[in-house]
Design brief:
- It is built from four helices and three strands, in the order ββααβαα.
- The protein is α+β, with helices and mostly antiparallel strands.
- The chain has one domain.
- It has a three-stranded antiparallel sheet.
- The longest helix has 11 residues, at 80-90.
- The N and C termini lie close together (5 Å).
Length: 94
């Protein structure tokens, strides 16, 4: 399992709406400086999930999903890093 100290949180935006703004839990051992957006933009759209995984993405949720999980009490948006880490742990992604 990856310790929380070896993860970080990043925001990726592909537009202005809530469905286009993503919060990503990143494995810092894979991407110590964060996800390289220039490299990600060059990824084949058919293999975008694989490109995210190879860039260190552990879990990625858009703002609509974050809002819904917060509404259900499954995530604390004020402690997003901790909450996404715990969610990834529950889902067996770590």
């Amino acid at each position: 399992m990856i310790p929380i100290e070896q993860t970080g949180i990043e925001e990726l935006s592909f537009g202005d709406s809530k469905e286009d703004i993503f919060h990503v839990l990143v494995n810092k051992k894979v991407s110590p400086n964060g996800i390289d957006l220039d490299k990600l933009r060059l990824a084949d759209p058919r293999n975008f999930d694989a490109a995210l995984t190879s860039a260190g993405c552990i879990i990625m949720l858009n703002e609509i999903e974050i809002d819904e999980l917060a509404r259900r009490g499954e995530l604390n948006p004020k402690k997003l890093h901790q909450s996404l880490y715990e969610l990834a742990e529950q889902e067996g992604l770590l």
